[in-house]
Design a protein that fits this description.
CATH superfamily of the largest domain: Rhodanese-like domain
CATH architecture of the largest domain: 3-Layer(aba) Sandwich
Order of helices and strands: HEHEHEEHEHEHE
Number of domains: 2
Structural class: alpha/beta
Strand order of the largest sheet: 1-6-5-2-4
Length: 147
């Protein structure tokens, strides 16, 4: 009887293992199909001159300064909203209603803005633009800064 129990337990263990591997395989393939159906957006990079042109053409343009409030108060691009990179949840909540509009993101030197642009495009924002070099490049190119 002990030998029979061992054999049954072995068969049961093999059956459970096969079911587990099959379930894992199903989950992996299903998630790949689901991810494959998502629209993938890419952000574009703007030079300061291109941003000036866009600001003159597009009155509904949204410009986001992702620096902390103190830096924003020291000087920012005219019309920019301050939505700090430290709170992406708030940024998404504020921008959600304007997903179809052109949104320009900038940071101090452009590096943080690249990361934020990637996050926003992954969240489904289709018209995200990154200001190349951030506000430093904007100022170096003669861009206007207000306080």
């Amino acid at each position: 009887m002990d030998r029979r129990k061992k054999i049954y337990l072995q068969y049961a263990a093999i059956f459970v293992l096969i079911m587990l591997l099959g379930s894992i395989n199903f989950i992996i393939k299903t998630s790949d199909v689901w991810r494959g159906n998502l629209t993938k957006y890419e952000y574009t990079t703007l030079m300061p001159k291109e941003l000036v042109d866009l600001m003159n053409q597009n009155k509904e343009l949204i410009i986001i300064d992702t620096r902390i409030k103190d830096y924003f108060k020291e000087g920012h691009i005219k019309g920019a909203l301050n939505l700090s990179h430290t709170n992406m949840k708030t940024m998404n909540k504020v921008l959600r209603k304007d997903m179809a509009k052109d949104i320009v993101i900038y940071s101090e030197d452009g590096e943080m803005a690249k990361k934020i642009c990637n996050i926003l495009t992954n969240l489904g924002y289709s018209k995200i633009k990154n200001l190349h070099g951030g506000i430093k490049n904007w100022i170096d190119s003669g861009g206007e800064v207000i306080k």
